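Regression test attached.
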Amino acid sequence: MARDLSSALATIRSLLDPAGFVEAAEVEERYLADVRGFLAQAPLALVRPTGTEQVSKVLAACHEHDIPVAVQGGRTGLVQGQLPRTGELLLSLERMNRIECIDADGGLATVQCGVVLQTLQEQVEAAGLMFPLDLGARGSCTIGGNISTNAGGNRVIRYGMTRELVVGLEVVLADGTVLEGLTPYLKNNTGIDLKQLFIGSEGVLGVVTRAMLRLYPQPAERAVALCAADGFAQVQRVLALCRQHLAGALTSFEVMWQMYYRRAVALADTGEPLGTDHPFYVLVEASGSAGAGVHATLERTLQLALEEGALADVAIAQSHAQAEKLWKPREISVETGRTIRPTASFDISLPIARMDEFVYELQDALRALHADCHVLVFGHLGDGNLHLVAHVPEALGRGKEEVERTTYALLQRYRGSVSAEHGIGISKRDALPCSRTPAELATMRTLKRALDPRGILNPGRIVEVD
Amino acid sequence: MARDLSSALATIRSLLDPAGFVEAAEVEERYLADVRGFLAQAPLALVRPTGTEQVSKVLAACHEHDIPVAVQGGRTGLVQGQLPRTGELLLSLERMNRIECIDADGGLATVQCGVVLQTLQEQVEAAGLMFPLDLGARGSCTIGGNISTNAGGNRVIRYGMTRELVVGLEVVLADGTVLEGLTPYLKNNTGIDLKQLFIGSEGVLGVVTRAMLRLYPQPAERAVALCAADGFAQVQRVLALCRQHLAGALTSFEVMWQMYYRRAVALADTGEPLGTDHPFYVLVEASGSAGAGVHATLERTLQLALEEGALADVAIAQSHAQAEKLWKPREISVETGRTIRPTASFDISLPIARMDEFVYELQDALRALHADCHVLVFGHLGDGNLHLVAHVPEALGRGKEEVERTTYALLQRYRGSVSAEHGIGISKRDALPCSRTPAELATMRTLKRALDPRGILNPGRIVEVD
C-alpha cells in the first residue's frame, strides 16, 4: 500500500471508534457476498460509522485523498452495486440503525438509513400504523438501500415505489457536505427538490443517512385470492375488473406463469388449491378500513370474472393463515429460481398488453439458442413489471451472456425497461443503453460530475464517468 | 438593439412559421400580466413553437447567442416566474396543445405541454377515466406549467402532487438537447431518474415539452360534506377519523377559518347551511368505486365525529349540485382574497398539530404591526398546507414587505415551508433561505450550472447564479 494511502486510511481510522474501522484482512466474508453468490475482492478497509457526522468526515477525507468508496446497506441488492471493487473503501451503514421517531399523529417515521425494513414495519405496526413498503428481502434490506434503489415490491400498485414514501431526506455529498432535508412536508415546492436526485440513483450522487418516511393507517381488513386463468386476455380482463371495482383498495396483482407456478408450489409444499394445469395463476390482494367491505367487494369482483369466463377458478383465503399459504409460491421466487440453476435473471417493465407476446417470442428465441433453454415468468403484473429467470444450459456456448444479449435485444424492440425495480449497479450497466438514450446517459454523467467531481462515490455503478 | 442580437433574433425567427414569432412591439398585454395584476416589461420578442424540434432549435440558438429565455405556460403562476424580465426572449408553449393519445387500457395520456388542464380532464373523462390533478386555475393553466411547478390542488391527499402523476417526460435542455423520456412505465429504475429534476424546478433546468401522465378510474361515487367545528383540536380529530375510516377514499380535507369563511360565503351567495358562527369549517370529500359505499362511510364517520363532540354540525350534499354549492366558498379563494386588498399572500406547509398556534401568533404579530392588519386563513389542511391572505393597511409604513418579513420570520421559527405548492419564482426568492439551508441552495446552483452552463433558462428564478 502506498504511503499516502496508508496515511489517509490512518486519518479515516482516527475519525471512528474502534468498532468503526476494520482492516482489509479482517473484513468478514458476509460483507463481500451477494445473495446470488457473487464474491467481491477485499476492500481497502471497512468503515462502520454510527452517525451522519462520521459519514461526513469520512467522505470529506476520501474526497480529499481521492479514495473511492463502495456504499453498503443490507447487501440484498441484485446488481452488485453494493459490493466493493478493487481499491475501494467499504462504507457500511449497518450501525446507523436507530428509529428516531414514530409520529403517529403526523403519520411520519424518522429513521437512520441502516434500519432494517422489517424492524421498521414491526415498530410502526406496534404504533398502530403501517409502513407499506414490502419485499422479500424485508428481513435484511435497509431503508437507506431501499431509498437508494427506489425499491418496489408487492404493494406498489396501491402505495407506489419507495420514492413516493420518502417525505424528507438527509444526504451526505461526496465532499462531506450534509444536505439537511428532513422536512416533514408532503407539499414543499421550495426550489429544486434535491431529495429526488438521491432516490433510486444507487449512491452515485450522495449517501442517504437519514429519512423521514410516510406512514399509512393499518388496513383493518385484508382479502387475498388465488385465481386461475386460461389465457392472457383473461388475466388482463381480471385486472381491469379489479381496478374498476376495488379501485384504491387493490393492493397487489401478481401473476405467475404456469411453469413458474408448478415449480413454486412443489417447493412451497402448501397444497395446490387450483391444480397446476392452468396457464396463469393470479394473486389478488385488497385491503381497506373496517366497514369498507373489502372482502365482499373482492369476492363480488372475482365472481363477476368467473361469470364472464375471465377466470377458470378462484380460491379466496378465509383466514390469515390461508392468505399466507396462497402467497407462499409467489414469495419464494428466489428459491424457485434456484431450482433451474444456472440461470440468468431479468426484471423488466413492459406494456401489459404486450407481455404475453413478449414471453412467447422470448421462449422461442431462447429455445433457438438451445433446446433446453427455458424461462420462468412471474411478477408484479399490475405494475407492468415482470421477473424472468432463464435456465442457461451448461452446453450453451457463451451461456449467460448469450441469454442476456438475446433477451435485452428483444426487450429493446418492445421498448421495455431493462430494470423495473432492481436497478443497474454493475451487472446491468451494459444493458442500460437498451432503455436510455445517449443524451440521457450523457446527462447522468453530467450530474455525476457536478455532484461528485472526483468520482469517489460508487464509481462505475450505473455509468462509467471519465 | 445591438447588431449581434438582432441578427440572432432573425435566426430564431427563421426557425419558426410566421405565427411563431412576434416582435417586441406587437406582444399582446396578456403575455405580460399575471392574475395578481403584476405587469412585466416587453420581452425581446415572443416565440410560439408548435413542436419539440422547434423548441430545441430555438434554445440551441439562444444558448449559442447567450440570449436569456422566459418560459411561459398558461400564465396562472403566482410567483412571477412566467413573466419576462428585461432582455429576455419570451417562449410561450401555448401552441403545443395537442393531446396525442389517451390509452384507456394502459391508464396513460400522452400530451404536449401546452394542453390546458381542464381540456385534458374533459377528454380523459370522455374516455371513461380521470386525470386527478385539479385546481382553481384549471381553465387556463397548462400541463407543462403544472409539471414545472409540481402543482398541488384539491386532491393531493388522495392522488399526490403532479410529480406522482408524471410517468414519462420529454424535456429540452438549455443547449437544445432533447431528453426523450416518454417511457410508459410506473417502475423504471434505469439509473438516475432524470425527469424528477424537471418536475417542480420551474423551468430553470430544462423546458418540459411532452408528458406521459397517469390516469385513474373514474370514481363512481363522490360524497361531499361541509362540517362545522368549534376548536382546532376537534378539526384534527375529524381528520384522524376520516383517515381511519375513509382511508384511500378520502379525496379532500379542506379547512376554512371563520374569517375567511364569512367573506367567502357572502361572496359565493350560495347560502349558509351551517351559519357562520363556528370557528372552523371543514370540507370533506370522499370518492370510490360503485358499491364501495363511500357515501355511507362518510356519513357514518361524520356521525361518529358528531357523537364524540368533534363536530358541531354537518351538512352532507345529496346531489351533485349541492356538492358544488358546498365547495363554492372554498373555490373562490382568489376572489375572496381580493375583498381585503391590498394584500400579501402566503402558501405554507406546517405540521398540522402546530397550525392553530401559528395562526394565533401570526395574528398577534400582524396586529402589532398595525391594528387593521388581519389575515384570512384556509387551505388543504389534510396535506399540511395553508393559504394565508393578509390585509396590508395603507397606513402601514413599508406595507407588504413588512407583513412578509413578519410572517416568514415566524414561519422559520416553526420550521415551516415558505412554499407548499406555488413555487418560488421571483417573488418568493428572498424567502427561500427560511426553508432551505445554504448547502441546499448551493447544490441548486451547482445543478443549474451543470445543466444550463450559460444560465439562459428562466434566469433569476428560484436562485441567482453568478
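Expected vs. actual: identical. Chain A has a mean pLDDT of 95.
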